[in-house]
Design brief:
The structure is a homodimer.
Chain A (H helix, E strand, L loop, with lengths): L6 E5 L4 H12 L3 E6 L5 E2 L5 H11 L2 E6 L14 H22 L3 E10 L12 H21 L3 E6 L7 H4 L11 H13 L6 E3 L1
Parallel strand pairs in A: 1-2, 1-4, 2-3, 4-5, 5-6, 6-7
Helix pairs in contact in A: 1-6, 2-3, 3-4
Protein name (chains A, B): Short chain dehydrogenase
Keywords (chains A, B): Oxidoreductase
Family (chains A, B): Belongs to the short-chain dehydrogenases/reductases (SDR) family.
Chain lengths: ~200, ~200
Amino acid sequence: MTNRRQTVLLIGASGTLGRALHDTLTARGHTVRTVGRFSGELRYDITDPSRIAALYEAAGPVDAVVSAAGTVPYKPLAEFGPDDWRAAFTGKVLGQVELVRQGLAHVAERGSFTLITGVLAHEPIVTGAAAALANGAVEAFVRAAAVEIAPRRVNAVSPNVFTESLDVYGDFFPGMGSVPSARVAEAYVRSVEGAQTGQVYRL
Amino acid sequence: MTNRRQTVLLIGASGTLGRALHDTLTARGHTVRTVGRFSGELRYDITDPSRIAALYEAAGPVDAVVSAAGTVPYKPLAEFGPDDWRAAFTGKVLGQVELVRQGLAHVAERGSFTLITGVLAHEPIVTGAAAALANGAVEAFVRAAAVEIAPRRVNAVSPNVFTESLDVYGDFFPGMGSVPSARVAEAYVRSVEGAQTGQVYRL
């Protein structure tokens, strides 16, 4: 797959990261097809696994799937309940996992999947337990799936809080720095154009 | 809490690991109260979070909660479906997470929780994607919860395949060695009697 122009399915195209991914991947000559719940070329909610089959059907053949989509609840640990853990699982794990599994029949033989996880898998913060749980699940899944889907590949990108989001979320990440979304997008390029699999890129 | 005799709630007491935990913890002078779905002093299925409140109510005050309970489906990646991922989440993640959260009101102020994860979080094998997902979720949760529950503590134990189970499961773990359940039980002792928190003990 390497550096040739690819058709890339971009899930979560409307967010901070999704926009950066669109710019970066387009600038590198790839054809980006945008997917979102409420915007984009293809309107699908991947947290409903039954919609993923319809998404792939509508999209046709693609070389790479990149996901920038995932939501989890944030609250103090004692205030979580069973439905919150389920929401984290459904909002960030299940859809991404099914993107890979259902995508095996639709992505090019040497194509790739790149999923989103995040710093909270390894750097705990107060209110971040559900995010950690979801991120840990995605990262371990990526390592596991990689050995079964070759020559297709799967990696995850684990960003710190975005520099663009520091105004809103910075207080939750004291002394932890930040990363510009454009730099996170470069890690997706590494996954899409490179040859690695089963990796988690932390930045 | 250190080395004094503790009252320990043992979830999943009837399995290979549960029996080893019972022997090891009892030999060290602790009072072990056994919990199981179909056997043990207290009959509760922790995969139903609503039963966990009843379990803690019935158990009364405890110093430590140790979990050896968790089931996940095993199959080739392409054969998994949404219900399988949900089963892995419910079978190994949700109950253990809620044991900690709901246990905060019942476990001694310097008490501990020790959860079970497993080698597949970091060492992928074919058919192990759901196990990996669940283990990764539990490990990241433990790191996250630790910073919110102090002075209570939480750790995870991540064992290789049990030596006692090699006859049945050995073919899935080629060249990966094994660990006797008695040695895994020692890691639980380290968690229960020690001072560490947020750790994952791999063995």
